[in-house]
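Running co-folding for pyridoxal-5'-phosphate.
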Amino acid sequence: MTNKPSKSICLFDIPSNQKAIGQENFLNAFEKILNHGGYAQGPECAELDTKLASYSGTKHCATCSSGTDALILALMAWEVKAGDAVFVPSFTFVATAEAVAFLGATPVFVDSNTETWNMDVADLKKAIAEVKAQGKLTPKAIISVDIFGNPANYSEIHAVAKENNMKYLSDAAQSYGAVYEGKKVGHSTLADMTATSFYPTKPLGCYGDGGAVFCNTDEELALVKSCRVHGSSTEDKYDNVRLGLTARMDSFQAAVVMQKLTVFDDELKNREKIGKYYSANLDSSFKTQKVLNNCVSAYAIYTILADNKAELQDWLKECGIPFANFYPRPVHTQTAYKSYNTRSLPVCESMASKVLSLPMHPYLTTEEQDYIISCLNSFAQKTKAA
Ligand SMILES: Cc1ncc(COP(=O)(O)O)c(C=O)c1O
């Protein structure tokens, strides 16, 4: 087995990113905010909106308080409500379905593709047909998730949404910076709207909570902005014309994201190199995630499927390798969501019992990665020999 590196291995590594940018750059940006005093939705937020819209190739970006709020704001702009069905993958972070249920609509859970682990398009079509046949709910929107940073099958899902006269929202909380057939996630042609998260461990994270909505029309932007601040009106400051939230981004978080953008493309390249290295060198008994042709994952998280997961976890602890479990419970099996589901979702249930997430960040060294791979592969050899 490869020698253990002297420094302990991190699952995520935010301090190295801070070092690469330079603390003084963060402090200078914070000082500017202290001087102008526009703390909530200040000038940094407007500047970030412009930068991100241009980075993604979309008409508008509206930063907000979290990835969850970004999803809720997009759905609010489309007036998603009780009686509406919104199709979501079950193998995701809870927020995808939570945003739907929060608005009183019904999340309809869709199974995962066995290769990409994203929403399975055949099962999506089946779920839509079932809802239509039951005739109780109005099929309103589809939310796909780019799980672990891996772009969903945007063109097929978009086509399904159009055929069924539904809206298409991309939950790109884990995939900002990923590329689908030459276009960055958030691009105006990929989905009707896109939501992302800047939670600290995301590929482009801030130092607290933050998120953004990407949209293509002036009307959607106006609605998202209104819902972001209590359903406010642009005509009369004291007249709130719809229900809304307090979901602004604060200027400090916007300043952090802008600093992080200065190294983001280099970090994405490193993530891709590291992700591909794992996939090429891990023993074939570990199932790895397929990235579609002409697409680049943002490799937010690197997850494998392992049959002897409990034993492997014990072995990784012995080897001093940190790991996580993304996600051991598909959303439809969680207490708050059980009552919504009547569908059979065998793929995501089987995946959930096998998932194990390995260290993944742009500063993982080859020495560290070789050690992780050799520990996993020696476990695989031992298991085969037993
Ligand atoms: C797929 C997905 N959607 C939504 C969110 C919610 O983002 P936030 O934590 O910023 O609210 C997350 C966060 O982990 C996520 O992974």
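Result summary
The radius of gyration is 21 Å.
The pocket of pyridoxal-5'-phosphate is lined by residues 66-68, 92-93, 95-96, 145, 171, 173-174, 197, 199, 209, 211 (CB under 6 Å).
Job closed.
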